[in-house]
Amino acid sequence: MLQNIFSLIVNAAASVLGGVLLLRFWMQLIRVRPPTSIGQFLFQISDWLVRPLRRVFPGFGGVDWASLAGAFLMALAAIVVDVWALPVFSFGTIFVLALLRLFQWIFYGFMASLIIDAVFSWVNPLAPLAPFVRALNDPLLRPLRRIIPLIGNIDLSPLAALLLLQIALRVVSTVLLSSAL
After folding, report:
1. pLDDT tens string 85-137
2. Taking a C-beta distance cutoff of 8 angstroms, is the pair 51, 97 a contact?
């Protein structure tokens, strides 16, 4: 029972920190400046890991590889805590499971961002965080908006993006799990 509680705490902490690192990676990749309070929070909570990792994974081409590597390390730590008592897992299996966890965080993060954007558009499109969330989603929605026309002045591209993200998550999960087992 204590193992389950410890695993729950580690998974929650790893998920939050992994999400912060992935958000930091995505913001720098698409060059979106967060509101000051959000930016300070993201950088203060993740700098302890990103700064040392930058020595190993320097950023180049506008890509913050240290944040992505940090997110993977958080996923790896969470998986190791989950399976440490099980002797049947090899390092390769743990690596693939950590990669799967990282992809799950990425896809679920995009889905959450799309849902938050939709809620902002319905409830308060002028909310202070609405432009930031919209800018985070724009690279996902821009290609779909070229294909899917407005229907009755309603944008259905977020719905299509959610569906495509779920399909991609299932495909990636199937491919990675089949290679791990």
Report:
1. 666 678 888 999 999 999 999 999 999 999 999 999 889 989 999 999 999 99
2. no
Core vs surface per residue 67-97: b (16+ CB within 10 A) or e:
bbbbbbbbbbbbbebbeeeeeebeeeebebb
Domain holding 52, by residue range, is 2-180
Write down how long the chain is: 181
Our count of domains for the chain comes to 1
Token pair in block for residue 17: 């920190």
CA distance 69 to 123: 36
144: tokens are 């779909």
* Alpha-carbon Rg for the chain in angstroms: 18
Count each helix (H run) and each strand (E run) in the chain, helices first.
6, 0
Q: Residue 84 has which token pair?
A: 């440490």
Provide the residue type at 41 as one letter.
F
